[in-house]
Write a structure and sequence with these properties.
The protein has one domain. It has four helices and six strands; from the N terminus they run αβαβααββββ. The strands form two sheets. A four-stranded mixed β-sheet has the order 1-2-6-3, with helices on one face. The longest helix has 11 residues. InterPro entries: DNA_methylase_N6_adenine_CS (IPR002052). GO terms for molecular function: methyltransferase activity; nucleic acid binding.
């Protein structure tokens, strides 16, 4: 976050991310994306557009496009990931890994006006 605040980032053409949904990561990411000129593709929970920080924030004012997948995404835990209590989860590889889909998610797209 310090590098983003200082505008000390490597050059990029487009930002594609699936950020952590905890704490204020989503709110801060939306503010960052609203402030940069580049396109942004954000995989976020569907409820984000109902939050006050979205409706009254700079990203929501951009009127992004939504790309909704035809079916609900399922997520697998990466090797070594821990749960909220700090216990290491089962790896997401293979059928024994932890698969989760706690809420629907879709893509929030900030595109240049010419690309809409």
């Amino acid at each position: 976050y310090a590098r983003a605040r200082a505008r000390d980032l490597p050059p990029f053409d487009v930002l594609v991310t699936n950020p952590p949904y905890t704490s204020d990561h989503v709110e801060r990411l939306l503010a960052f994306c609203a402030a940069v000129a580049q396109p942004c593709c954000l995989l976020l929970p569907s409820y984000v557009y109902t939050k006050p920080y979205y409706a009254s924030g700079p990203f929501g004012a951009l009127r992004p496009l939504f790309l909704v997948p035809p079916c609900r995404y399922k997520y697998r835990s990466p090797p070594g990931a821990s749960n909220a209590a700090g216990a290491v989860r089962k790896s997401g590889s293979g059928s024994s890994g932890q698969v989760t889909a706690p809420f629907p998610s879709f893509w929030y797209l900030k595109l240049p006006e010419a690309e809409r």
